[in-house]
Amino acid sequence: MNSISIALIDGHPVTIEGLRHVLAAHGTFTIVACGESSRDAIAIAEQHRPALMILDLAIPGNAVAAISDIRARYPGLGIIVFTAAPGVDYAVNAMEAGARGYVSKSCTPEEIVSAVRTVVAGDTYVSQNFANEVITALRNASVRRIAMQALRLSVREEQIVQFLLGGKTNREIASQLGITERTVKHYMTVLMQKLNARNRVEVVIAAQDLRRGPAGQPNVEAHGLKNGPPFPLGHRPYHS
């Protein structure tokens, strides 16, 4: 069997060495490069073109943006997020950016090996302790995306809506997106028109309504997802 090239990106040398030790026990894996930041991840993807990258979200820089950039440039490169980050939102953001695996740092050595083999095979892997919540969150995110598309919101407008729902100020939104506050205010004006809102508060309320069904429940049945998620996660692999 041909060796599988793997890059490791983590800000903690102990984690890097631990992964190296676990993967070295299996002769089919070769560690081709290691890094500690989002910038390293992008550079390593370009220079080494590994089959797989194992990456922590808590590295310096924007890890989710790095995942999105790498997947756009090298769609054949599988990415597993290996993290201690709590909360399903982290998993959803990473998976929507293009990660094909999300594994808890509390996993067993056998699980990380299983995740690597699953993702290299073209499937998706999520640790069991995340799986059910991630399925639900991804399903609801899909519904929100459908609603946003129905309103013909641009990608930037959708981003701003998500920041508004997170309670961000115009200044914080501008900083996160690398644009001016004046530009953010322009988008706010456009959003008020599209959402038939008179002010910022009504924009937020309208955006929240998009996230809920009639009784405050996720509006999934209307979009044909009532029988379950669009794909299985957890220890059961999914083939794209």
Automatic annotation (TrEMBL):
InterPro entries per UniProt: CheY-like_superfamily, NreC/VraR/RcsB-like_REC, Sig_transdc_resp-reg_C-effctor, Sig_transdc_resp-reg_receiver, Tscrpt_reg_LuxR_C, WalR-like
Domain HTH luxR-type: 146-211
Domain Response regulatory: 5-120
Keyword DNA-binding recorded: yes
Positions carrying 4-aspartylphosphate: 56
Pfam families: GerE, Response_reg
CDD domains per the UniProt record, alphabetical: LuxR_C_like, REC_NarL-like
Gene3D superfamilies: 3.40.50.2300
Molecular function via GO: DNA binding
Region (Disordered): 214-240
Keywords on record: DNA-binding, Phosphoprotein
GO annotation (BP), single: phosphorelay signal transduction system
The name this protein goes by in its record: Two component transcriptional regulator, LuxR family
Organism of derivation: Microvirga guangxiensis
